[in-house]
Write a structure and sequence with these properties.
CATH class of the largest domain: Alpha Beta
Strand content: 15-25%
Oligomer: single chain
Number of strands: 8
Order of helices and strands: HHHHEEHHEEEHHHEEEH
Radius of gyration: 24 Å
Number of domains: 2
Shape: elongated
Helix content: 40-55%
CATH superfamily of the largest domain: GAF domain
Structural class: alpha+beta
Distance between the termini: 65 Å
């Protein structure tokens, strides 16, 4: 008769871990997280039927969870009501979390290198509660220049940063951002047709270069920093000021190319 095999502690470990995981299951939370993770990979959102099929869930499970995510503003419905996509709420929450600090830490050396080479100031903005928030700023190396104060809230509608941020969003997300928008001091109002035309032109060029709507003699150049879905998670902008003395500084075209290179280093879209 063979002696009984002694139990191997390593064999029991996976079972114990599985039991522990099962003990603390939260099916509703799992369903919500499954939906968020699925939508994070979709550029144009999904219908309810597509979500059901992808997750292998029934209609009642998906419907109730989607409605709660919409109410809590983690997910937005398209204007037609048939497609769902992620809002920027998770990104907004990250403003108060270390990942935002890591993003700023990664951006600052790139911004400093740009400022030194272009001899212009540069600032980084993200969407925040209806307008834009300046989360990083670097001055140019010269004795004078124009800079935007760190922590400032700037307009979503009439600034280069805001228009670039809006141009590189899904229609549903852009509509939500515009609905949340509150007018800032001095903001120039633009009608929907003018905005739509501007957004189309920005997407075609990949950036915006225009005379500042706030200051004479300044040309704003702004590029989007793209996330994995191809939508803008931030905008990198330089308020270009042209030298008129004998000093030969980088031209507007040169500075535009330098800013594009900087944003490509920070973007997270495929192919980067």
């Amino acid at each position: 008769m063979k002696p009984a095999k002694s139990p191997n502690p390593s064999d029991a470990a996976p079972e114990a871990a599985l039991d522990e995981a099962e003990r603390y299951r939260a099916p509703a939370l799992d369903k919500g997280l499954d939906i968020l993770e699925l939508l994070s990979e979709q550029k144009d959102g999904l219908t309810r039927a597509e979500i059901m099929k992808a997750l292998g869930r029934n209609a009642s499970e998906i419907y109730r969870m989607l409605e709660r995510l919409v109410v809590r503003q983690y997910v937005v419905r398209s204007s037609g009501g048939d497609r769902y996509s992620l809002s920027l709420k998770l990104f907004a929450l990250a403003h108060r979390h270390p990942p935002m600090n890591r993003f700023i830490a990664a951006a600052l050396p790139v911004m400093q290198s740009f400022a030194d080479e272009a001899e212009q100031s540069v600032h980084l903005t993200v969407y925040d509660r209806g307008n834009l928030l300046v989360i990083a700023q670097v001055d140019g190396p010269g004795t004078w220049g124009l800079s935007i104060r760190l922590g400032s809230r700037v307009g979503l509608i009439d600034t280069a940063s805001g228009q670039v941020m809006l141009a590189f969003q899904s229609e549903a997300e852009r509509s939500r951002m515009l609905d949340e928008h509150t007018k800032v001091k001095g903001e120039i109002a633009l009608d929907e047709a003018a905005l739509a035309s501007t957004f189309a032109a920005i997407r075609a060029r990949g950036h915006l270069r225009k005379d500042s709507a706030q200051t004479f003699g300044v040309t704003d150049v702004s590029f989007p920093i793209l996330g994995p879905s191809g939508h803008a998670i931030a905008a990198l902008t330089t308020p270009y000021m042209r030298r008129i003395d004998e000093y030969v500084a980088p031209s507007l075209d040169d500075v535009t190319a330098m800013l594009e290179a900087a944003t490509l280093k920070l973007s997270m879209h495929e192919g980067n």
